[in-house]
Design brief:
Layout lengths: L4 H7 L1 H4 L3 H11 L1 E5 L4 E3 L4 E2 L1 E7 L1 E7 L4 E8 L3 E2 L1 H5 L2 E2 L3 E4 L3 E7 H8 L3 H34 L3 H4 L3 H14 L8
Antiparallel strand pairs: 1-10, 2-9, 3-8, 4-7, 4-10, 5-6, 5-9
Helix pairs in contact: 5-6, 6-8
């Protein structure tokens, strides 16, 4: 796929607005195009990933999977991005992403992004702030959802909540970790 500066700006305005003409051209020069077929896995929860993905065409689904179940987190559509955590900190992917139709992705690796930092520090700094803002919003939502789901447990009597003791501890640990407290092991 040949992405022009104009088409990139139209499709990914939240990234393009931080680039400027020279930065956008350099960004486009380091993006790799990846074609994925319907049903193909792009990232796997817990496996190494170091890239940010921009969906140029198609549709994907994000999910987390354990040995016994999968929880669908949501759809990822044309114009969306995913992989913010892994471009910042390469390592285990936080979710499994699977194409639900043939898709075209633009891939920005951690190393390519770091190479852009020297000639375009303002651009990369702004893009990092944008990705951090996305992650902060997600943390705030997760915090509120966890608190609202498990706060009722605190009001139960000891006899009523005995079968939920593990759940109470789990909810409390998650909230503490989201706020940077408690044990850091997940």
């Amino acid at each position: 796929m040949d992405m022009t500066p104009a088409s990139f700006t139209e499709q990914f305005p939240s990234i393009a607005e931080h680039c400027g003409p020279a930065g956008l051209n350099d960004l486009l020069s380091v993006l790799q195009t990846k074609h994925v077929k319907n049903g193909q896995t792009v990232t796997t929860d817990g496996e190494y990933c170091d890239s940010l993905y921009l969906v140029a065409e198609g549709k994907l689904v994000s999910q987390i999977t354990s040995a016994t179940e999968s929880i669908r987190l949501g759809s990822i559509n044309k114009g969306d991005i995913f992989g913010e955590v892994n471009i910042l900190d390469p390592g285990p992917s936080t979710s499994t992403v699977i194409a639900t139709e043939d898709s075209t992705l633009l891939v920005l690796s951690h190393d390519a992004f770091r190479r852009l930092d020297k000639p375009h520090p303002v651009m990369t700094g702004n893009i990092l702030r944008m990705m951090c803002s996305i992650m902060v919003d997600r943390c705030r939502v997760a915090d509120k959802l966890l608190f609202s789901k498990y706060s009722y447990i605190e009001g139960l009597t000891k006899n009523d909540s005995s079968h939920d003791a593990g759940l109470i501890e789990w909810g409390r640990n998650i909230l503490q970790k989201l706020h940077g407290h408690g044990r850091t092991q997940v």
